[in-house]
Amino acid sequence: MNTEITTRYSSHPEDFKSYPTSEIRDKFLIEDLFKADKISGVYTLEDRLIVGGIHPVHSPVQLEAVDQLKAENFLDRREIGIINIGAKTKIDIDGASLELDHKEALYIGKGVKEVIFHPSPSGDTYLYFNSAPAHQEYPTRKITRKDAEVVTLGSLENSNHRTIYKLLVNSVLETCQLQMGMTELKPGSVWNTMPAHTHDRRMEAYFYFDLSEENVVSHFMGQADETRHIWLKNHQAIISPPWSIHSGAGTSNYTFIWGMAGENMDYKDMDGIKPVDLK
């Protein structure tokens, strides 16, 4: 098999308060998403989201059903969102082919049987994906940055000048529960998602990229009155439970992909927390 998915269990916020750094990293950090000629990732019991990476190098790789799904095909009861963070690549979907360019997104709905990812001629094929349970079939659709709902927020003075690309959200296309987008921080800005927030109606996963080898991001999580942090490198992801804030600051600007699953599709459904109230 070329599809390898491991399982992570849910955690209670009261238990989280006692975790040392090593346990936070073991339970929430995904360090090695891209393996040559593999589809790999984590099946988290936080809303049963799958967070993964696709890295064809020498040959195409096919999306295969994994044991956690108890299904004949990966998308029999699921939808998937894919964002290309590497070179332009070709993807076959039930016999039809399309090309996905750098920082373009692809939605594939429930019921698709065969998905094959091809390596690019440069060998620099990196595709990040989230997959969530689905109750209804929606059509496959590619979303470019021009198709996205785009919002620019923050300021250089507050170190958080950023552009948000809402790619796979219900204001752009129909999905069952999955929402994904991408936030690019401007040069000189390092803070994301500040002021922080939580949303009990859905969980979230963050994936950080566009970071050089010498730069890192400090990601903050936990309940607002007792936060923790861990350090992430380029091409690493973090699972954020519904009760946790999800915010970060880097040693340089960077880009991150946010993905959400849960029962509420309203992007603005957030319980805001003032920075001065964080502890």
Structure, described:
- By secondary structure, the chain is mainly beta.
- The protein has a single domain, classed as Jelly Rolls (Sandwich), CATH 2.60.120.
- Helix content is about 5%, strand content about 45%.
- The protein has two helices and 24 strands.
- The chain has helices at about 15, 20-30; strands at about 5-10, 30, 40-45, 50-55, 60, 80-85, 90-95, 95-100, 105-110, 115, 125-135, 140-145, 150-155, 160-170, 180-185, 190, 195-200, 200-210, 215-225, 225-230, 235-240, 245-250, 255-260, 270.
- Strand 13 (about 150-155) and strand 14 (about 160-170) form a beta hairpin.
- The longest helix is centred in the first third of the chain and has 8 residues, at about 20-30.
> How far apart, in Å, are the first and last alpha carbons?
45 Å
Arithmetic mean pLDDT: 96
Annotation field: number of helices: 2
Portion of residues in helices? under 10%
Overall morphology = globular
| CATH fold category name | Jelly Rolls
Task: Give a quick account of the main beta sheet: strands, pairing sense, barrel closure.
Answer: 7 strands, mixed
Based on CA atoms alone, the radius of gyration comes out at 18 Å
Element order: H for helix, E for strand = EHHEEEEEEEEEEEEEEEEEEEEEEE
CATH superfamily: Jelly Rolls
CATH class, anyone? Mainly Beta
